[in-house]
Design brief:
The complex is a heterodimer of chains A (124) and B (194). Chain A is an alpha/beta fold. Chain A contains five helices and four strands; from the N terminus they run βαβαβαβαα. In chain A, α3 (70-82) links the parallel β3 and β4. Chain B has helices spanning 4-32, 37-54, 60-74, 79-93, 100-115, 125-137, 142-151, 175-189. The chains are: A alpha/beta (124), B mainly alpha (194). The structure holds adenosine-5'-diphosphate and magnesium ion (MG). Chain B: Pathway: Polyol metabolism; glycerol degradation.
């Protein structure tokens, strides 16, 4: 059964954004994973509209979002303002943060506990 | 006073300036970034031009919002959400006042909130902040803008991609500061300030 909280990955590069969920799936079969990578034209960069789409495509109503570089965060924040979903944004190392969250969500660990484990992974 | 007419004229001149200086902006972004600022801005102003052309009898608020959304969706780099937020904040403020000093001050607050940069961090904020101040004390002008842009050269980058270079970013102009300089210079050229 799909977990209540999902994960969204945002990267400047479409392949990075698509690749990370592949790794997470291995440990989090029931966590809804969506991603947004690159600009609307598929070039290197990020797009607030693509991120909103990734929020909407995610089956979960509450989302944990992870990103690669600073400007992805700005577009994430804009997307959060444009979307109705409840989105938590983390300044952790992208891959390690998302992997930690995915593993713990799959194990039904509550969000407050997950956030404690994410805290030391904060790097930006 | 900012009007729809003035905003359109301003965006036409800004478009022409970006189009002309696209290569230079990307060149500035090469030693301390990823060399795409000119291309990013060009995509942005292309989007602005297209979406403004579709508006029929817009209000000032609609005009500013349209510019914001075009920049947010087309630019791709960090400058997109930053310039987009700037115009979005102006759109929010323009019912209350059409005074450039007040609108640009609201835009500056938006940029600071979105990007977390302070004055001295070697970003576009180092042009926006002194320019907003200059609009209030009457020293606003081409010379003042050029000086603000030039001041970024000796700064150490603390935000954005250039911050990964730390002290090695010294000696280079910030590309976003330069494009912000163009934004204000074309505002003057459009007749924005008498
Ligand atoms: N956090 C920030 N706050 C303010 N301005 C920033 C920030 N990050 C980047 N910038 C501005 O954006 C410019 C770079 O824009 P651009 O090259 O289009 O984006 P990117 O860095 O994503 O490639 C910088 O020169 C700087 O002026
Ligand atoms: Mg760049």
């Amino acid at each position: 059964m799909t977990k209540k909280i999902g994960i969204v990955i945002v990267s400047h590069v479409p392949e990075i954004a698509a690749g990370i969920p592949r790794l997470l799936e291995q440990v989090a079969a029931d966590v809804a994973l969506t991603f947004a990578g690159g600009t609307d034209a598929g070039e290197v960069g990020t797009s607030a509209t693509k991120i909103v789409t990734a929020f909407e495509q995610n089956e979960a109503a509450e989302l944990l979002a992870f990103y690669d570089l600073g400007s992805a965060k700005m577009n994430l924040e804009l997307a959060i303002e444009m979307s109705d979903k409840k989105v938590h944004l983390y300044d952790t190392a992208l891959l390690e943060g998302a992997y930690t969250a995915a593993t713990l969500l799959q194990a039904d660990v509550p969000l407050t506990e997950i956030e404690k484990q994410l805290a030391p992974l904060k790097i930006k | 006073m900012l009007t729809v007419e003035l905003t359109k004229k301003w965006m036409e001149l800004f478009y022409a300036q970006i189009d002309q200086e696209k290569a230079y902006l990307s060149e500035l972004d090469t030693p301390i970034g990823d060399g795409d600022h000119g291309n990013n801005m060009k995509r942005g102003v292309d989007g602005v031009k297209d979406s403004l052309a579709k508006l029929k009898d817009p209000t000032l608020k609609e005009t500013l919002r349209t510019i914001a959304m075009a920049l947010i969706s087309k630019v791709g780099g960090a400058s997109g959400p930053l310039y987009g937020t700037a115009f979005l904040e102006m759109a929010k403020k323009c019912d209350e006042s059409q005074e450039p000093a007040i609108l640009f001050a609201a835009a500056l607050e938006g940029i600071k909130k979105r990007g977390g940069a302070k004055e001295g961090d070697k970003t576009m904020v180092d042009v926006w902040a002194p320019t907003v101040k200059a609009l209030t004390d009457g020293s606003f002008g081409t010379e003042q803008i050029k000086q603000a842009v030039a001041s970024t050269k000796e700064m150490i980058a603390r935000k954005g991609r250039a911050s990964y270079l730390g002290e090695r970013s010294v000696g280079h102009l910030d590309p976003g500061a330069m494009s912000s300089g163009y934004l204000f210079e074309t505002f003057i050229a459009a007749g924005g300030v008498k």
